[in-house]
Amino acid sequence: MALIVQKYGGSSVGTIDRIRNVARRLIEVKKEGNKIMAVISAMSGVTDKLIGLAHEVMDNPPERELDMLLATGEQQSIALLCMAITDMGYKAMSFTGQQAGVCTYGSHTRGRIHSIEPKRVLEALDNDYIVVCAGFQGVTVDGTIHTLGRGGSDLSAIAMAAAVRADLCQIFTDVDGVYTCDPRVVKDARKISVLSYEEMLEMASSGSKVMQARSVEFAKKFGVVFEVRNSMNNNPGTIVQEETSAMESLAVRGVSIERNQARVTVSGITAPVAYTAIILSALSDAEINVDMIVANTAHDGQARQSFTMNMSDLGAAQAALKKVLPQLGESARLETEAGLAKLSVVGVGMRSHTGVAATVFQSLADAGIATGMIATSEIRISTTVEAGDIEQAARVVHSAFHLDQVNA
Ligand code: ADP
Ligand code: ASP
Ligand code: MG
């Protein structure tokens, strides 16, 4: 008998038919003699709808109340799934984050999991129930509801799998696994059979939203091997695990794209020291996540610094930087550019293969696509392009590394 944790995302429980499909799948696992726990998301579109309602009421809804509201999406779907299972003749019990013992800390709408005390869930499993837990939510020690950031049910599932020491953790979604690029953008993208935590993390944090980046970080930290699969078929998916030497044979294993990027440049900086600290502290105090950073000093001695960030942070970044401009010198000024996107190539093989950057930039140049800011890590190269060029850029780079042909 194995203990299996399966996560089903919003599209997998998006209609009553799909909820019944998940119920049948869980019952199959149970009938094979296993203990089965599902962690599920709100029905697709529900979380967005709730956010929309909140903003209809007011511009900046208090985050505590947003968490209270958003957590209801998952509460609906767990109850409906348990009803579907019961209707098929099996015992099922739903658990909110609090009932499942998920203890959180940190900020509202992006809470972090501190610990999980899964006593009630384990009892229900021992008593032969199919257990259905709400993803995306937990409570602080004093009982305040937190949600875990968009896509946070992935994190709930991985953390739950670690807490109950599951034998298997499967993340079910609407595609067959993790592909060499988003299959909605690159039609000949291929499913990758095994990925390392590092590669999955770099892909997720550079736009491949098939997994929430924080959930992958958690899996890596606690050694939770997981598989991404399709809830509508039985095809094998993508296993995400520790790196193996075989993964290094290819330089690039995936291409990620991230839309809605903006650039802010502070130029004419004459403040002699610590200007980077002044700028970054101002942005960090405003809780803005800066992505790429480029700094240089012009021949006239004036410095300039550019950053990229999500479009949604642009207004707040401008406001935060305007306040510190006087500290950066009399000629310091702010320029912004919206309408950018980011393309990244990822692969652990990059450590041992040369010429990866040359291939990326040559293929983009051959296609007449202009690139902007560049950032790299040991296993990733990213560049900004105009938003309108991003899909073509993804296809060009994908084919330059023959990702449509090789068995990744
Ligand atoms: P869920 O509702 O199951 O959490 P998501 O919408 O969060 O599903 O994630 C699945 C989607 O991720 C796919 O439909 C696909 O369009 C997108 N996606 C982006 N990059 C990739 C990739 N590299 N491989 C697979 N899917 C990807
Ligand atoms: N329902 C939440 C969201 O839409 C969590 C999730 O789907 O993972 O972000
Ligand atoms: Mg998701």
What does this molecule look like?
The protein is an alpha/beta fold and 408 residues long. The protein is 33% helix and 27% strand. The protein is built from 11 helices and 18 strands. The protein has helices at 16-31, 46-57, 63-87, 119-126, 153-163, 197-205, 213-222, 275-285, 314-324, 356-366, 390-400; strands spanning 3-8, 35-40, 92-95, 102-105, 112-116, 130-134, 137-139, 145-147, 168-173, 194-196, 226-230, 238-241, 254-269, 293-297, 303-310, 333-346, 371-377, 380-386. Strands 3-6-2-1-9-11-12-10 form an 8-stranded mixed sheet, sandwiched between helices. It has a 6-stranded antiparallel sheet with strand order 14-15-13-16-18-17. The protein has a two-stranded antiparallel ribbon with strand order 4-5. A hairpin with a 5-residue loop joins strand 7 (137-139) and strand 8 (145-147). The two termini are 32 Å apart. Bound molecules: adenosine-5'-diphosphate, aspartic acid and magnesium ion. Adenosine-5'-diphosphate is lined by residues 9-12, 41, 151, 173-175, 178-179, 181-184, 208-210, 254.
| DSSP strand tally | 18
- Largest sheet features: 8 strands, mixed
The CATH C-level class name of the largest domain: Alpha Beta
Helix-and-strand structural type: alpha/beta
Strand content: 25-35%
Average pLDDT level: 95
**What would CATH call the homologous superfamily of the largest domain?**
Acetylglutamate kinase-like
- State the separation between the terminal residues, measured CA to CA: 32 Å
SSE pattern: EHEHHEEEHEEEHEEHHEEEHEEHEHEEH
Radius of gyration: 23 Å
